[in-house]
Backbone:
């Protein structure tokens, strides 16, 4: 199981530094842009950006007509996300940024249904119990026909402990509520030693 204290300390330090974390490029992933600007774009609706960090994707979605909630467990990241949205001229309530843990019971208990659940590199660091909670929250919150777009490392090590997800892990975790629509395997852009993948899942 991942040591949450070690993970939190690493992220808190990274987001409190004067330099951005290596994973925070400030660039909206092409896979996220494809959902909004691609050949078959999703119509703007309600979205959740899990592990939103400094709000790059949250701000992009809100600027393109989505009603967005961004969540992260590190307040230093959320402060930067709020500043990013303000600088972009977005309304004070969209995107909305909250401190929350998607791997904990009771996550966003009263949140309205979602058309899009976005996770760019959050779930792959969770331990087994937190992953089960996460999947249950996604099944509860994503409306039928909705999309779960997940970026995850393959099997790897984070904070000195086993982490990452195989495609079989993803299908086992979400298969009861979601159908796997696509999987694109590659390498992490900031560390090509790490295998990674984008998974697109549709709520049954």
Residues:
């Amino acid at each position: 199981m991942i040591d949450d204290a070690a993970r939190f300390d690493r992220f808190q330090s990274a987001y409190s530094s004067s330099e951005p974390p290596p994973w925070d490029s400030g660039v909206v992933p092409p896979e996220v842009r494809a959902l909004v600007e691609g050949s078959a774009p999703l119509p703007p609706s309600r979205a959740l950006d899990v592990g939103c960090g400094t709000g790059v994707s949250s701000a992009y979605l809100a600027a393109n007509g989505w009603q967005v909630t961004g969540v992260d467990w590190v307040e230093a990241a959320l402060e930067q996300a709020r500043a990013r949205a303000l600088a972009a001229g977005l309304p004070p309530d969209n995107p909305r940024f909250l401190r929350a843990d998607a791997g904990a019971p009771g996550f966003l208990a009263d949140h309205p249904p979602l058309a899009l659940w976005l996770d760019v590199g959050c779930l792959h660091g969770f331990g087994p119990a937190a992953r089960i909670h996460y999947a249950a929250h996604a099944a509860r919150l994503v409306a039928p026909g909705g999309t779960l777009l997940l970026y995850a490392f393959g099997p790897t090590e984070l904070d000195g402990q086993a982490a990452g997800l195989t495609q079989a892990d993803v299908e086992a975790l979400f298969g009861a509520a979601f159908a796997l629509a696509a999987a694109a395997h590659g390498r992490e852009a900031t560390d090509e030693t790490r295998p990674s993948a984008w998974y697109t899942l549709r709520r049954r």
